[in-house]
Amino acid sequence: MNQKINPVILKKSNDTAKKAADKEKPTELVYFTSSAKYKDSYAVIAKKIEEKLNVKIDIQVVPDEQYVTLLKKTKLSTKEVPDIFDFNTPSGYIQLNVEENCVDLTNEPWAKRLVNPGLITTKDGKFYAMPRESSSFYPAMYYNKKVFKDLGLSEPTTYDEFLNVLETIKEAGIVPIHMADKENWTTQIFMTSGFSAMLGPDRVDDVYEKTKD
Hints:
Blueprint (H helix, E strand, L loop, with lengths): L2 E4 L3 H12 L5 E8 L5 H14 L1 E8 L1 H13 L7 E5 L3 H5 L1 H4 L43 H6 L8 H13 L17 H23 L2
Parallel strand pairs: 2-3, 2-4
Antiparallel strand pairs: 1-4
């Protein structure tokens, strides 16, 4: 899962920075995130932003298991959308109703410098999120070579082959997939990131449209 930050008001902070610097009271923004995504360095960055731009960032960190519920069912439903928040993209576009709740960032100057813009692009060619980072998380699935050799299995190259491999391993009395779910957000990675990458932006939008509440 490529975890992204949706910079809803980053443009606003840039536009108002010069004006805010002339005022005694700083411009205030809210950054809403979960405990797994938060890093201590964010507080350092926020402090520097306040010193240089007179923009104060209120960092609100909530437990992982509460994050999505608070964001979708409390913040978004009451239209109290945080200025900046984290969410998975492009899978989150449908869930968040980004056209209504978020800023279109397609034409921002930094957009031209993105290495893989397709990862956050909608089927209409737009994107509503800015990558927060690109190197701290690489989703992958590891497999036990001995198990594959003993059962005469080859690496699957399609999703159907993957399901068949899992079924064969299961029939041999071996647990086919193990996930380290010390933090419960990890269990959704395969669905939100794996399926999104496999389907692509066009098909993943169609899937979420058919399954959303």
